[in-house]
Amino acid sequence: MDEQVLRDQLVALLTEGHAHVTLDRAIADLDPALRGKRPGSGVPGVFEELEHLRRAQEDILRYTLDAAWASPEWPKGYWPERREPTEAEWTACVAGIKADLADVCELVRRLDLDLTTRIPHGEGRTYLRQVLLVADHNAYHLGQIVQIRKLLGAWTGG
C-alpha cells in the first residue's frame, strides 16, 4: 500500500465530503434565527449539534496529542445548554471546528508518524483509529444538521 495515498485519502475523507455533507454545506445560508431553533421535542437545534461536534472533535484531538488532557464529563461536557447562540458563539464554534479539523489533517500528513502505532497513553487506540473516529463522528452529526434543517424547512440542498 502506498502510504501517501492512504494519507491523502484520509484528508479527503475529513474535508471533502464526497458521500457526506461538508461543514460549509451543512450550515450554508442558514437563517441566523434558526440556529438555535429545535424542530420538535427531543430534537436538538443546529447549534446544539454543531457545538457537540466541536467539543467531541476537540476532545478526540487533544486526547490523541496530550496524555495530560482531561476529557469533559459525559454527557454534560459534550453538549451545550439549549439556547439561541450569539453571533460570536456561532462564529467561534465554526472557527473552532475548522481549526481543530486542520490540526487533525496535519496529524495525518505527518510523515514521521506511523498512523497504525498505538498512542502511548491511548488505551490501545491507534492514531488511525482516532482519525477515523473524527471522520465518522463529524459525518454523523453533519448529517443530523441536514436532517434538522429539513425538519425546519430550511434545507435547500440535495
What does this protein look like?
The protein is an all-alpha fold and 158 residues long. It has one domain (3-151): dinb family like domain (Four Helix Bundle (Hemerythrin (Met), subunit A), Up-down Bundle). It is 54% helix and 0% strand. It has helices spanning 3-15, 23-27, 46-65, 87-109, 127-151. Helix 1 runs antiparallel to helix 4 (87-109).
Produce a short descriptive summary.
The protein has a single domain (3-151), classed as dinb family like domain (Four Helix Bundle (Hemerythrin (Met), subunit A)).
CATH architecture: Up-down Bundle
CATH C-level name: Mainly Alpha
Q: Please summarize the sheet with the most strands.
A: none
Helix content: 40-55%
Q: Which shape, going by the Cα principal axes?
A: globular
CATH superfamily: dinb family like domain
Count of extended strands: 0
Q: Give me the Rg, rounded.
A: 16 Å
Give the tally of structural domains. 1
**Structural class, from helix and strand content?**
mainly alpha
SSE string = HHHHH
Q: Please, how many helices?
A: 5
In quaternary terms, these chains amount to single chain
- Within the CATH hierarchy, at the fold level, what is the topology? Four Helix Bundle (Hemerythrin (Met), subunit A)
Uncertain spans: none
User: Roughly what is the average pLDDT, rounded to an integer?
Assistant: 96
How far apart the termini lie comes to: 35 Å
Q: Determine the strand fraction and express it as a percent band.
A: under 5%
